[in-house]
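Subject: GLPGLI family protein structure
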Amino acid sequence: MKHNGILPFIICLFFSINYEAIFAQSREDFVFDIKVDYTLRFKKDSLSHIVDQLNCELLINNKQSLFRSEEKAQKDLARYQYLFDRSNFKGGAAISIAGQFKPDYTIIKDSDSLFYFQGINAGGANNMVHFYYSEPQNVLDWDLLTDTMTVMGYRCQKAVVDYGGRRWEAWFSTEIPISDGPYKFCGLPGLIVTIEDATSSWKFELTKFIRKESRIAFNFDEGVRYRRVTRTDFLKQAKSLLKNHWEIRTASQNGTDVHLKGSQLQKKQISEQVKRDNNWIELYP
């Protein structure tokens, strides 16, 4: 830093001081005392003018933070209720058919590292592949600029960074002295109020900042285990699983489902979806 300063039905999170032994941990419950809401607007298809919107949440305490979409939070809650609290279970969200048709990851940050968790649907509800990887926070090498502007009522300063094959422009506010922000973005001397890439394909905007207690259960689903990979390997495997989604799906049927295997219309629909999913937040190297 120049200034000192593929979709799962449920991703269950593993968190402990010893991240190398992350999968050996038993269930843990954490308490966050700050909730920051962001709206994400993004283009899945770089050749289209269609803009999707997703509401996201950043939960913060004095040791770590957690970022996910509100839809992901609802899936997590539904899975937890299904396993442990059937009296409140109201059903789960539908499973998307492939890779990264919409953002569905969870990111945990501690004092100097960030941890990315995602499951990829490799063809059908029972073909989930779960990955996680870690990165040092100083991978975000910010340039602080002198530009200032009022955003959402906060006095903000401009910063720029190159990450994931994109140039990002952020506006942060020292009026909220929290070195965090949406997605992986952190390390500035104030909370990120808004951040957008140079192509205007991805934009996060703060919509609400409140002090609210949130209790989150980690590592509660014993049926899920993650494969530890590097970030580059994750992107490579996610791209491969997405590209070969139909072949993996039909192969998993062992040729027994003639309706699935012979559905050329469905194959075409999936192929078109894959082609339109070409503008990930981190561009494949």
